[in-house]
Amino acid sequence: MAKQKLHKTRIDLDSETREQLVALLNQQLADTFDVYSQTKQAHWNVKGAQFFQLHELFDKLATDLLVLVDDIAERATTLGGTALGTSKMAAKASRLEDYPATIFGGQESLETLIDRYATLAASTREAIDTSDDLGDADTADLFTGISRTLDKSLWFLEAHLQA
User: Fold this and answer.
1) Sign of CA dihedral 26, 18, 67, 65
2) Is residue 142 within 8 Å of residue 78, measured between CB atoms?
3) Residue ranges for the chain with pLDDT beneath 70
4) pLDDT of 163
5) Which residue, among 28, 23, 21, has the nearest Cα to 2 in the 3D structure?
6) Under DSSP, is residue 46 helix (H, G, I), strand (E, B) or coil?
7) How many CB atoms lie within 10 A of CB 6?
């Protein structure tokens, strides 16, 4: 991502640190927005015996992700940065695999989303450590809350495939 011009703020983090944090936040924003859109893709297209249950679950998980997207974007702007949050920006910056347009069945929808949520949860834990290393307990705390939400969502998804 290109280096951004920061807006003035009296937050007591130097501009170099804030630049690194904004870049980190925008990367997580792109990935989180991508997982949101992939979850909606599964929600709209799932078929099979578990249709209603999965349709409702996927919609709830997507709604939860939108809250996270907003929190991440607002932290980037709080630090004086610009949130890069359009769908095109997210698609360009996301590190996640695309959601195949050929997936409709409940099990394959679950397996695909489990992979995406696990990838995002892992990068979120890395973001906690990076934020902490940069001396920003507030961003680390934000990512810690996001990590808890993603882990719970992952549990909801994985429970459907466990006996």
Assistant:
1) positive
2) no
3) 1-3
4) 80
5) 23
6) coil
7) 15
